[in-house]
Amino acid sequence: MTASVDTTAAISVNDLTLAYREKPVLWDIDLAVPRGSLMAVVGPNGAGKSTLIKAILGLLKPASGTIRVYGKPYQEQRRLVAYVPQRGTVDWDFPTDALDVVLMGSYGRLGWVRRPTKSDRDAAMECLGKVGMASFADRQISQLSGGQQQRVFLARALLQNADIYLMDEPFVGVDATTEHAILTLMRELQSQGKTLVVVHHDLETVSEYFDSVAILNVQLIAAGPMNTTFTADNLRQAYGPRVASKIAFLKP
Description:
Blueprint: E1 9-20, E2 23-34, E3 38-42, H1 49-56, E4 64-69, H2 74-77, E5 81-84, H3 98-103, H4 107-110, H5 118-130, H6 146-159, E6 164-168, H7 176-191, E7 195-199, H8 206-209, E8 212-217, E9 219-225, H9 226-229, H10 232-239, H11 241-246
Parallel strand pairs: 3-7, 3-8, 5-6, 6-7
Antiparallel strand pairs: 1-2, 1-4, 8-9
Helix pairs in contact: 5-6, 6-7
């Protein structure tokens, strides 16, 4: 499958192949993420979902292919992109408080030499407030629950005031309150015209939470609007017949 770069898309991935020790993790991926979409990336363990996000961010070097953000290389557009990593990949014992973690979202604009100003700190507090964490600003991140830590990282991404938000399994290991807060925030960002690409694990909530989906298992099985893409046939190709049969409401 070959596609030309779609300059109208928020993210365009063309012929992307990425391997670890010569074993393909992503193979010949073509994906266009429309501007303003709320897209889930789903697939079984080892499908390459997190790898795709890291490749878009330039954290992993592909064997072949191109990735464009609004038609340009990521390096030229990095200030337009915010990233919320998997909570399990973060060193939560690092000695810093919640407010300082959020302020890290301003470093792309300030650089590492300039110190955040009062207005930066005020903006960071406002972002903590949006995720219900303002009262925890002085709390060491190691003292926060898993859900609270995730909300702090969401606040950091908010402070970047990006156009595109890449989130790697933000709902994993969080409580119901945090899950609701994350979902509310995602929908608010989309209503502002932002584009969100979210690695998601719970197939039961995909059609409820998102308006489009990319189904991945090393290769891209399908991508597009929820009602035409999130089907039993496509899930069967990615996960096998047992998973697809468990979700009875899916189209054939």
